From TrEMBL:
Belongs to the SMC family. SMC6 subfamily. GO terms for cellular component: nucleus; site of double-strand break; Smc5-Smc6 complex. Residues 224-1292 form the RecF/RecN/SMC N-terminal domain. Residues 79-214 are annotated as: Disordered. GO terms for molecular function: ATP binding; damaged DNA binding; single-stranded DNA binding. Residues 161-171 have a biased composition (Acidic residues). This is RecF/RecN/SMC N-terminal domain-containing protein. SUPFAM superfamilies: P-loop containing nucleoside triphosphate hydrolases (SSF52540), Smc hinge domain (SSF75553). It comes from Volvox reticuliferus.
Length: 1332
């Protein structure tokens, strides 16, 4: 039936070709006239799918879906292939869990493929609504959004946009809805009555008291009519017809009962392995034959029939089983003929669709319970997990979960197709834009022509402008710059010549000085030789004096011994004359001794006076040196005071700005005066631009970078030369002019160059507030001082850690502390440079200039105080020097007086010694006279010897003094010679350097002369070229005047500049999106780049390129438009715009729908939880209900986490609550166990809607009583659920079944018709047996 309105255009197109019949009332008459027509197209108007009908008289009409379903002749829903498939409604799912095949886009709609959606397995079990089971109406509402629900992991995707959005929200129901026939809407009363009559024909006679049971004479769609097998298992030929309600097959073991079940399974799609009777189809073929055949005939009656136009009221599924090869299926119609399927349509696919339509799943344990399954349930092989899975399969909950998963997967496919739809929308939009562009191109063709005319005029006059500029520049170069350049080269040559002459003069001076120095050195060498010879002679004289002293000493001692002997002889003489003589001798000797003592005292006085004189002279010399040192200290202090005054004056002159700190005040004035001579203003001094972020690192920064602070940065060599000249004029020393790029971006410092482990680099504490100077200054310090790799350390331990343990990284080779101490490492060498020169008050990067000025004032005050103290010291030294000189003069006079006294005493001593005492005469004693004579002689010799000894001692002292002085003079002269030799070496090095500089100047002079001559030659050529260029300019001017006049040309050039500027702006904007470096540039840099690019493009080549682009655009305008008809393109553009807008609206509607699907999916999940809980409660109640029929009690325990179902049974516990529940069914008797299994199957089967149920050996292990009760329960269940067909197989006798039937009628007080129960007694297979 056609109760599903197509939401997609592709679904609506399936109705194209269908026949319609519609009544019209011509001329306003009352009698209708019927016309036949055909659906030819499905257009969309305002988002609504319409159907274009072409009638037999040639007239056409567009109608809506609601009208189409009233006039269409064939009510069958078309398949995706376009052929009607009879009454085939979409497969129903539990309410709230409908898949994508329901009233919405299915898998094929979203690009999954296939003629029909294959979202669930074959033979899905149908379910009924709770309200229907309870006798109520259908309270649920189908929600057709299962596969359309959007998950958070998926992204919505466009495909074919729906014709209209689904405005209804998904309603979650507690129970699945029963599959209902899809009746044709708005049926007339007659037609509806005919339907009721047709339905009544399938039912039994009315009026019988069957207690609400409705008897059927034919089965419902999907129920089994009969089965026929050949050579299958134990049967050679066998055929069995089934009742429309309950069929009970009885037979002993080996009679082939179970073969019926296996035949049903194999024919309805179950694999041989899943039957439990073999691993392959060949295991099911009768022994001795190679093939077998199984036929299962299903009822196909009523409104729910499957493709009745093809199959009729019965469908026979036939399968040929072969030992080798495939075992194909065949579908037969009601006449036993092979069904006429569509060409290319496969039998297995139609079979699957049919089983799916009838909700037949032969694999479902609740549809066909095999003998093995029954025994498994009765034994303990069926564990709690198997029971839970059976519950989930029987109640369809596992299918619902699977559907939700499938819906999720299909949402991902929806995303992909959603993107495809979006892509198609973008393509439509792109086509619209292309058409719009084509239209605009045709509309702007006149503008291109105007641009071409403008560019041609601009090119003509731009050439004139450029030639005029070049001619003017050439004339200026030939008349001004060329001679100036020649003059510069001449000046350069003269300067080199002067420098060369200066070096020659210096070379001569060095030669003269070196000659004089060599002469002095030679003379000094002779003098040193003389001194060394004098030292040698003095040493010889000293040795000789020592020997003379020793000889005099020896002679004196010998004479004293002789004198002692004579004294002894005279002592023995008692003569008075002898005594007189001895007295005279002793007195004379006493006089000599006294005189010698006086002489010794005089010598000591002379030595003391000489020492005092030497001390006084040394003190005078020391005071003279102190006075000279004091003069030097006063001079240095005065220089410091003057420097401090100068710095303070500079700070005052610059109003306390930072230029005064770096003594750049005068230089800054000169720069301002000559600012127009610079290409760009110099940046500096560098120190005046820097600031330290943390005052703790002021001293470290001063030590590390102080020698860079006075430097300036310039942009070119010419500016550097000019700045150096200004530095000389201003006296700005110890500074450099560094050439660098001012427009270079700030260096990007990689992490690998920075200190690691928390150490900060010197770079991070420096700030340049001037934005224009920031990049040049910081780049210069990075390049020269490597401030990014200098680690800052707070103390000595951190410095040692960086230096020795590499704690800041292996790449960090330098660190500096707060006190300015350097920690350096080179290779294996590590050392520390202590800061002893720079003090904290000398840090010039101090942020507050007033603080620096205060420090200078303090230093000035200290310097002035120091200079005053030094002057006081100088005055004190002058007084001390005057006193020392007076004392030196007194000491000199005392030494002179002492020396005269010593000489006088020495003369008197000599005279006294030379005087011999007059001895008495001993005429009478010759011997005594001889002794006296000898004594007088010895006395005289002794006096002479003493004089000689004294003379020798004086000579030795003089020789030692002379030798000491000679040694001292020789050493001093040798030291002086070494200094003179070093000085000579320095002079020779200067001479060699001068020679080298002369050689370099010779080369520069030759190069300068050559360049000067080249410039002169080039100047001559330039003048010739000016004449030629002037002639060409006149020709270009004449050609340009032919194009337009000058004013128009200049206007064209201005317009061309704007044209080029716009083109460059677009190109730069496009490039900025791809080039990160360009995107990071500032607005000012972009503006300058834009101006440079525009200016570069305004030459002849650039304008010609723009002209070529314009010509190309003119050529492309018609080619890209595809037509020169502007009106046609505008019509196409309007149509395309409407199509794109429609596509966009459809996209937005689908997006909104998918948002609703997400909400619906959440509701479905909640519904699933409620449904599962409801089914658990129903199953629990039914299970307990059936157990109570045998006075048992029991309950079911569900564990959804572990997916287990446990049975707790209390035998005879209905009226005895104290009975212990049994969990292990092995503790029950065989009958109790079998009955419990039947109760479980019936409880779960309450929710299963397969059109038939088959149970093999349901009463195994039961005793007679339990068997009767179980059979009665099964029959009662079948009576209450009369819409289903039941097939039971038992090895027991049929009498028990009849007894149970009678008991049921007696207990329920009803009369069951004979057709309700069909019993079949099977016998062991025998030849030629065809029917039981």
């Amino acid at each position: 039936m056609m109760d599903n309105k197509p939401l997609l255009r592709r679904d609506a197109k399936l109705y194209c070709g269908r026949k319609v019949r519609k009544a019209f009332f011509p001329d306003g008459g009352k009698k209708p006239q019927y016309f036949f027509g055909t659906v030819v197209e499905c257009p969309i108007f305002d988002g609504e799918i319409c159907y274009k009908i072409e009638y037999e008289d040639g007239d056409v009409e567009d109608i809506a879906w609601a009208e189409l379903v009233q006039i269409i002749m064939d009510l069958d829903v078309p398949s995706a292939s376009g052929k009607s498939v009879g009454h085939q409604p979409s497969r129903k799912q539990p309410s709230g869990f409908a898949t994508a095949s329901l009233d919405g886009p299915g898998p094929s709609d979203f690009g999954i493929g296939g003629d029909e959606p294959r979202m669930q397995r074959q033979g899905r079990t149908r379910k009924r609504d709770i309200n229907e089971r309870d006798g109520g109406g259908d309270s649920g509402q189908d929600v057709n959004a299962g596969a359309q629900v959007r998950t958070r992991q998926c992204k919505p995707i466009l495909d074919d946009a729906p014709a209209e959005g689904d405005d209804s929200e998904a309603e979650a129901a507690e129970r699945p809805r029963k599959r209902m026939a899809m009746g044709r809407p708005m049926l007339g009363a007659e037609e509806a009555g005919g339907r009721e009559q047709a339905r009544a024909a399938t039912m039994g006679p009315e009026g019988d008291d069957f207690g609400g049971f409705t008897q059927r004479t034919v089965g419902l769609p999907g129920q089994i009519a009969k089965i026929r097998v050949e050579n299958f298992m134990c049967h050679k030929h066998f055929e069995l017809e089934f009742g429309t309600h309950v069929t009970l097959v009885s037979g002993a073991n080996g009679s082939g009962k179970s073969a019926i079940v296996q035949a049903l399974q194999v024919c309805l799609g179950v694999t041989a392995r899943n039957t439990g009777r073999g691993t392959a189809i060949s295991d099911l073929i009768r022994t001795g034959v190679d093939d077998a055949k199984v036929q299962v005939t299903l009822w196909n009656t009523g409104e729910d029939a499957f493709m009745p136009s093809i199959f009729g009221d019965r469908i026979t599924v036939e399968r040929h089983l072969r030992r080798t090869g495939a075992s194909p299926y065949t579908l037969l119609d009601a006449r036993g003929r092979k069904a006429a399927l569509d060409r290319g349509e496969k039998v297995k696919e139609v079979l699957d669709r049919m089983l799916d339509y009838f909700t037949v799943d032969a694999n479902n344990a609740l549809t066909i319970i095999t003998q093995d399954k029954s025994r498994s349930l009765l034994s303990d092989k069926s564990n709690a997990r198997d029971k839970y899975e059976m519950f989930m399969a029987g109640t369809l909950l596992d299918k619902v979960q699977e559907d939700l998963k499938v819906a999720n997967a299909q949402l991902c496919a929806m995303y992909k197709n959603f993107e495809d739809i979006l892509t198609r929308y973008k393509a439509e939009k792109q086509e619209e834009l292309q058409l719009s562009g084509k239209v605009e191109k045709l509309r702007s063709a006149d503008k291109f022509l105007q641009d071409r005319e403008m560019l041609e005029q601009a090119i003509a006059w731009r050439v004139v402008q450029q030639m005029e500029g070049r001619v003017a520049a050439a004339k200026a170069a030939a008349e001004i710059h060329g001679p100036e350049l020649v003059s510069l080269y001449e000046c350069h040559v003269d300067a080199i010549a002067r420098a060369k002459q200066d070096l020659l003069d210096r070379q001569k001076e060095l030669a003269v000085e070196l000659e004089r120095h060599d002469s002095i050195v030679e003379n000094n060498m002779s003098h040193v030789q003389g001194l060394l010879k004098a030292e040698k002679n003095s040493r010889i004289n000293m040795e000789r004096a020592k020997r003379s002293k020793a000889a005099a000493q020896a002679s004196l001692e010998a004479l004293q011994n002789d004198k002692k002997i004579l004294d002894d002889q005279l002592a023995q003489d008692s003569n008075g004359k002898a005594a007189e003589a001895r007295r005279l001798v002793e007195e004379h000797q006493k006089q000599i001794t006294e005189k010698q003592a006086i002489l010794q005292t005089a010598v000591e006085d002379v030595t003391a006076a000489l020492q005092a004189h030497e001390d006084a002279r040394a003190k005078v010399e020391d005071l003279i040196n102190q006075e000279a040192a004091c003069h030097g200290a006063i001079h240095r202090a005065a220089s410091n005071v003057a420097e401090f005054h100068k710095q303070l004056r500079g700070l005052d002159a610059e109003q306390d700005n930072r230029l005064g700190i770096f003594h750049a005040v005068d230089l800054n004035k000169l720069i301002n005066q000559n600012i127009r001579s610079f290409r760009q203003r110099p940046i500096g001094p560098i120190g005046a631009l820097l600031t330290v972020t943390d005052g703790r690192w002021l001293l470290a920064t001063e030590v590390a970078l102080g020698h860079y602070f006075r430097n300036y940065l310039v942009s070119c060599t010419a500016d550097a030369m000019l700045l150096r000249d200004l530095m000389k004029k201003a006296g700005y020393q110890r500074a450099s002019a560094i050439t660098t790029r001012f427009d270079a971006p700030l260096h990007s410092i990689p992490v690998s160059h920075r200190p690691a482990n928390g150490f900060i680099p010197l770079l991070d504490v420096l700030i340049v507030h001037d934005t224009a100077a920031r990049a040049p200054v910081m780049n210069y310090l990075v390049d020269k001082a490597h401030i990014e790799s200098v680690a800052l350390v707070e103390n000595q331990s951190q410095g040692q850690s960086v230096n020795h343990a590499c704690s800041a990284g292996e790449h960090i080779a330098a660190a500096i502390s707060m006190d300015g101490d350097w920690y350096r490492r080179t290779g294996g060498l590590r050392w520390v440079n202590r800061n002893e020169r720079v003090k904290r008050q000398h840090c010039r990067l101090i942020a507050d200039v007033s603080e620096y000025k205060a420090a200078l004032e303090r230093d000035l005050e200290q310097a002035e105080a120091l200079m005053g103290a030094r002057r006081d010291d100088l005055a004190r030294l002058a007084v001390q020097l005057r006193d020392a000189r007076a004392w030196e003069a007194k000491c000199a006079a005392d030494w002179k007086v002492a020396t005269g006294l010593k000489n006088r005493v020495n003369t008197e001593l000599r005279r006294l010694i030379m005087q011999t005492p007059e001895m008495p005469r001993f005429e009478d004693d010759e011997e005594t006279g001889t002794v006296l004579t000898q004594l007088a002689s010895i006395q005289h010799e002794l006096a002479s010897s003493q004089i000689q000894l004294q003379t020798a001692e004086e000579a030795l002292a003089l020789a030692e003094q002379s030798h000491g002085q000679a040694v001292k003079q020789a050493k001093e002269e040798q030291t002086r010679i070494q200094e003179q030799v070093a000085e000579g070496k320095r002079l020779r090095e200067q001479q060699m350097e001068t020679v080298s500089q002369l050689a370099e100047l010779d080369g520069r002079h030759s190069a300068a002369v050559s360049s000067r001559e080249q410039v002169r030659a080039n100047l001559a050529k330039l003048r010739q070229g000016v004449e030629i260029a002037d002639a060409r300019l006149r020709q270009a001017l004449a050609a340009a005047n032919q194009v337009c006049n000058r004013s128009m040309g200049e206007r064209a050039i201005q317009l061309a500049r704007e044209f080029v500027s716009e083109a460059v702006q677009k190109k730069m904007a496009s490039k900025q999106q791809r080039d990160r470096q360009l995107a990071a540039m500032g607005e000012e840099e972009l503006r300058r780049m834009h101006m440079r690019t525009v200016e570069a493009s305004m030459d002849y080549a650039g304008l010609e390129k723009q002209l070529a682009v314009v010509n190309s655009n003119i050529a492309k305008a018609a080619a890209e438009a595809g037509s020169s008809d502007l009106q046609e393109l505008e019509i196409r553009l309007a149509a395309q715009s409407k199509t794109a807008a429609t596509r966009y609206r459809a996209y937005k509607r689908m997006e909104e729908m998918m948002q609703r699907f997400q909400t619906s999916y959440a509701n479905q999940m909640q519904s699933f939880e409620r449904l599962r809980t409801s089914l658990m409660d129903i199953t629990q109640a039914k299970f307990a209900k059936y157990l109570r029929r045998r006075d048992h009690d029991g309950k079911l325990e569900f564990n959804h986490t572990e997916r287990t179902l446990k049975l707790l049974v209390k035998p005879k516990g209905k009226n005895n609550r104290d009975v212990q529940a049994v969990e292990d069914l092995k503790q029950l008797s065989g009958g109790e166990r079998s009955f419990t299994t039947v109760a479980l199957l019936l409880a779960i089967g309450e929710n299963t809607e397969s059109p038939f149920r088959c149970n093999d050996e349901f009463d195994v292990f039961m005793d007679d009583v339990n068997r009767r009760v179980a059979t009665e329960t099964l029959l009662e269940f079948a009576m209450e659920h009369s819409m289903f067909q039941y097939i039971f197989l038992t090895p027991q006798e049929i009498a028990t079944v009849e007894d149970a039937r009678q008991q049921l009628m007696k207990r329920r007080r009803i009369q069951l018709p004979a057709a309700f129960l069909r019993t079949v007694k099977m016998h062991p297979p025998r030849p030629n047996a065809v029917q039981a």
